[in-house]
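For the sake of clarity, the format in which proteins appear in this thesis is described at this point. Each number in the token line that follows is a code from a learned vocabulary of backbone shapes. One such record is shown here in full, so that the layout can be seen directly:
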Amino acid sequence: MKYLLAAIFAACLTAASTAVLAATPDAGNASQQPCDSGYVNGVGGSAQSIREYMALPDRDKYRYVTDNPIQCQVGDDGRATGCTGLTNLQHEKASVYDDSDSATTTVATRVELDHGEVHAVIIVVPKQDFKCGE
């Protein structure tokens, strides 16, 4: 009798958890999974600069970008580190570095720094400015 009650309880538990998963929006939808690469169309930069930018009213965002251009330290090996400020990116290919934030994505992409030099940098972009794709 105990085994029968345990089996019925287990079956009910399984059915209930399946119903909850089925009722969850986009449950098991592979298109909702994060991607590995895509394109950035919009603003990107240091985490602090992006947070400040996103907190501003729309009327002040353009001025903030122009007043805070991206600046990075470029080492002898060509790596750009310690970036501050923001840059505008137009359909720039990027690889996802970290997608754990709900509002932003950290990506590795090419950015033009001082004197027209282009370097690979890791920057933060608002999620709405990043689109998955080949």
